[in-house]
Amino acid sequence: MPSLKEIAATKGLLFGTAVNSGHVAKNSKLAETIRRECSCITAESDMKWTAIRPEAAKFEFTRGDKLAQFASDNGLLLRGHALVWHDLPAWAEAISAEDAETILVEHMKAVASRYEGKVGHWDVINEVASPNGLRDTIWLRHLGEKYIDLAFQVAKESCTATRFYNENRMEYDTWEMENKRKSVLKLLERLVSSGVPIEGLGIQAHLFPELAFSESKYSAFLKDVGALGLKILITECDVTDKELPADVAERDQKIADTFKQYLDVALAEPAVIGVLTWGLTDAYTWIKSVRPRTDGLPVRPLPFDDQINPKPAYQAIYDAIANAPAR
Ligand code: 9MR
C-alpha cells in the first residue's frame, strides 16, 4: 500500500504533521514514520515567540535550526509557525503601544530571513479572529487592525515562503463557529480586495465528534475562500476524544469516522492543497495535557498510537485522500 504522502501526491495534495525537533531527536521510529508518510511538516513549537524570543534582547534559534535541518535532510517542505500570535513570552506581553510596531517588525524580519530558503510556508498570523470580529490581542490593542496588513507586507519583504493566515474553531454548526467563519471571510475579503499579500488560509481543524457538522454550510465556506483566489490547507487536524466511550475499538472507530467525514468534505474543495495532522502519534499530543479524558484513560486523537502503530484513523485519512478529486 502506498504511504499517505504517496497517495496524496497522486492527487496533487500534501500530507504532513506538526512536530518538534526534540521529538524526532529522541524517537527514531517517529523520524522514520515521518520520512515514510509525510511530504511536509509544521514546526509545532520550535519557531514560536516562546521558543525563539525567551528574552527581548535574545534570539534563540537552536530548536528551529534543528527542525530546519531535519526537513532539509529528508526533503520535507517545512511550514514555519507562527510569526504573529497572541501566545507570547511574558516580556512580550508587556510591550508598550509605542514599541509594538518596532518589535513586531524586527522579530518578523529576523525570523523570516533566518529561515529564507528553508521554510516553504509561513503561518504569518495565527488565530486573529473571534466570533465578533477580531481577537483581542496586544497587537490589536496597540496597532489596530493594520497589524495584520503590516505582517503580510513584512513577510513578503523578508522571505519567499508562501504566506498563510492560520485559524482555529471554524468547523462546526455552533453559533460561535458560524460567526467565526463570517469574521474570517470578512477579513479575507478585505485583505484580498486591498491587495494585502496573503496567499492562503490554514484551517486548523481540531475536530470534535460530538458537535454537529453541516457539510453544506462548511463546503460553502471553503468555496467562498477558494473564490477569493486563496489556497486552503488543513493544518492541525486531530480528534478530541474526551466525550467518546472508553472502549478502545469503539472509540478508535468514532475517531476514524470523524476524520473521514470532515476530510471528505474538505478535500472535495479544489482550493484545498493538503492536510496535516497536529502530531502523528498519540505519544506526543497537546490534547493529552489540555483536553484529557475525565476517566483518566490515555487520549487517542492521532493516526498512530503511542507505539507508532497505525490505527483506524490512519486508514480513514488514507481513504479520504484516496477518494479526493485530483488537483
Ligand atoms: O501543540 C502545541 C503545544 O505543544 C504547545 O504547548 C502550545 C503552546 O505553544 O501550542 C500547541 O499548538 C497549538 C498551535 O500552535 C496553534 N493552534 C492550537 C495548537 C494546540 O493548542
What does this entry look like structurally?
The strands form 2 sheets. An 8-stranded parallel β-barrel has the order 1-2-3-4-7-8-10-11, surrounded by 6 helices. The protein has a two-stranded antiparallel sheet with strand order 5-6. β10 (231-239), α12 (248-268) and β11 (272-277) form a beta-alpha-beta unit. It has helices spanning 4-10, 21-26, 28-37, 49-52, 62-73, 90-93, 97-114, 138-143, 146-158, 175-193, 215-227, 248-268, 287-290, 312-323; strands spanning 14-19, 40-43, 77-84, 119-126, 129-130, 133-134, 162-167, 200-203, 206-207, 231-239, 272-277. It has 14 helices and 11 strands. The mean pLDDT is 98. The chain is globular and about 55 Å long. The chain has one domain (4-323): Glycosidases (TIM Barrel). The protein is 46% helix and 17% strand. α7 runs parallel beside α9 (146-158). By secondary structure, the protein is of the alpha/beta class. Ligand 9MR binds next to loops.
